[in-house]
Amino acid sequence: MNRVCLARCATLLLAFLTMTAGPASPSSLETGDFETVREANRVLEEEIKLAARPQVYLLVDCSERVVLIKGRGVELYRLPIIDWRLSGEGPLAVVFRLLVRPPVVRPKAMPGEDPSSDPIDLHDMPADYDLVFDPALILAVAPPLSEQPWLWAKSHLREWWRHVVAWVRVTVTADQAALGAHLRLTLSEEAAQSLAWSVTDGMPMLIRRATSL
Amino acid sequence: MKRFSATRLKIVRGAFLALGVTLALAACQGGVSRDGEVRASEPEQKQGPRIEQLRARHAALQRQLSQRAPDGTYIIVDTARNRLYVKRREVVLLTAIASTGSGTILDNPDRPGAQWVFDTPRGEFAIQSKLANPVWVKPDWAFLEEGLDVPTDPLQRLEPGMLGEYALGFGSGYFIHGTLYTRLLGKNVTHGCIRLNDEDLRAVHRLSRIGTPVIIF
């Protein structure tokens, strides 16, 4: 009787395992909907063109919540996105080029002084800044409230002011394009500084939109 | 004989029970209905064949992108964290602590308004030269930085032993080379070149060849 019970339990367990077995964690593309896969393909098509040239580029993946620094299709560095928010109007399915990057205060080497005494460091980079791209897109980067309350508040105030200015401009000129697109990324302080360090003038950037965008 | 038949009966009953549980679980997941028909969710029914095409296209695009990666060995330099990696495909062959550009500026006294910026260039480059026992030809800024006059005799610019055993040029006068100042490895202190300790420099020299890609970010 006990052996029969044991056999039944084993069979039930086997059936359950058969049902639940599968890939450990299927990617969003395996389980994702039509739009998710289509968007991923669009980004890949653009990335293949970027990776054909000797350059470093950015991929902001809102779907996977990560900023990737890449070259030749190879992932060079990965910066996790804590949160993101998109507002305004403008095309997102294009290759953006960086026009304005955060200002960096460079120390001046004085003749006769040890040049290694005051080098620039990753921690000298700003953690709260705007990256301006062409076509019109502002990528606002700031650390989370929990890490840097002052920078977080400053960044929100700047965003609010930008909306006010854009709204006035749209009201006066009736030009909806004046709004522009605005992508806000919340990154850890270190990730924000890393991004500020790594961006270069004219750097290409792709955005993989989440399907909710 | 009778006992054997009873055992077989139990096995058959167990198998039917397992089948029933399997079907029930499948029904709960929306894959199989109570009638045993395979039923897809509403959007998948409409887009079934198309999403499969998209996934196939996705796999093809990923293969295409992976072909853009360097074929052989390549070098990655992370200037933010002062690390150098030698990789082949996804395999890391070497991880080294480096020193990269200090980011400082130096005014050129001979040309007002002009200045040198001591950054390591970012982007993709390639090894263009591999020198053994290189001799540093000190540029103007090296003298000015030390508070010295720029010499008129070119021989006074030569400084052997400063660059270590090897120097690997990757264009515009930038090199991966050795250093006497190993205590500064891991810091941004150079004039744009990439410094390594002797052992790592030997490994990079051994693993790279002319044309090896150098990706700096």
Number of domains of chain B: 2
Spans of chain A of at least 5 consecutive residues whose pLDDT stays below 50 are 13-25
Beta-strand proportion of chain A: 15-25%
Name of the CATH class of the largest domain in chain B: Mainly Beta
Second rung of CATH, namely the architecture of the largest domain in chain B: Beta Barrel
Q: Which stretches of chain B are low in confidence, meaning pLDDT under 50 for 5 or more residues running?
A: 18-45
- Helix fraction of chain A? 25-40%
Please report the total strand number of chain B as a whole number: 15
Main beta sheet of chain B: 5 strands, mixed
- What is the N-to-C order of secondary-structure elements of chain B (H for helix, E for strand)? HHEEEEEEEEEHEEEEEHE
**Largest protein interface?**
A-B, 52 and 61 residues
Specify the number of helices of chain A.
5
Distance between the ends of chain B: 78 Å
**What assembly state would you assign to the polypeptide chains in this entry?**
heterodimer
